[in-house]
Each structure stands twice: as C-alpha cells, then as structure tokens.
Amino acid sequence: MITKKAEYAINILAELARREKERFYPSGEVAAQHGTPPNLVPQIVSRLQKEGLVQSARGPAGGIQLFMDPKDISLKMVIELFDGPLGLTRCLTQQEYCHKTEYCPLHGIWKRTQGIMLSELEETSIKDLAEEYENVNASK
C-alpha cells in the first residue's frame, strides 16, 4: 500500500511542476494545494531535497522549487523513496516470507499484476501528473 506521505510528496512535486520554474515557493503554500498536513511538510520537503528532487532557499524570497526535470521523476521513484520497494504481497518483496512460490498459482498472478503496476508507475512522470491536474482544472 502506498502511504499518505508518498502521495503528499507526489502532489507537492506535481504542484511545483505546474508553476514557474525559476521561482521559489513557500512549501506550506505548495503543500496546502492538495491538503498536505502542515506538520508533515518539513519532513517531506527535507526528504525530497536530500534526494535532489527539490531545492530550497531561506529568506523572504525563499521556499522550494523543483531541482530535477519533472519528466525525469517517475511516480515509482517517489513512492519507493518514501515507502521502499513496492509489492502487492510480501511474497514478492520478501523472499523469506513464503516458501511456496514455485508451486503457488497465486504467485504468478501477483507477479504479472505487480509487473503491470510497476511499469505504469515507472512510465508516469510528475510532468504527466501535472498535465493531468491542468486538464482537470481546465474542465471545471
């Protein structure tokens, strides 16, 4: 399952991707656009900065801005940054969890389904998500 922190991080990045690239924006303002709880913003932004996805600046004109090109940031990358390896079941991410993988009919189904999910998350970028938000807002 994808945690709320990962979801909030994705939305913060998508919101930054929708904005002017050369400016810094107050992190609380950016995060509030998608309902990120204020107490989580520093943790999320710190992690994104540590990984080189955003940069921050202090002072009156400070805030955060994207550091990486949003087309180079996949949803999978952000989710795994906060949640670790993604898996539909523990048998796909923790080898020692299940010893029936060689003869379990469910294992093959889980593995194929997970492959599709991971592929979709890898192929979908923050830029794609930002464009989807623009489309939704334009149709309102």
What can you tell me about this protein's structure?
- With 140 residues, the protein is mainly α.
- The protein has a domain at 4-86 and 125-138: Winged helix-like DNA-binding domain superfamily/Winged helix DNA-binding domain (Arc Repressor Mutant, subunit A, Orthogonal Bundle).
- The chain contains seven helices and two strands, in the order αααββαααα.
- Strands 1-2 form a two-stranded antiparallel sheet.
- Strand 1 and strand 2 form a beta hairpin.
- Helix 1 crosses helix 7.
- The radius of gyration is 18 Å and the shape is elongated.
Question: Going by CATH, what is the homologous superfamily of the domain at 4-86 and 125-138?
Answer: Winged helix-like DNA-binding domain superfamily/Winged helix DNA-binding domain
Radius of gyration: 18 Å
Question: Which structural category do the helix and sheet elements fall into?
Answer: mainly alpha
Helix content estimate? 40-55%
How do the helices and strands follow one another from N- to C-terminus?
Answer: HHHEEHHHH
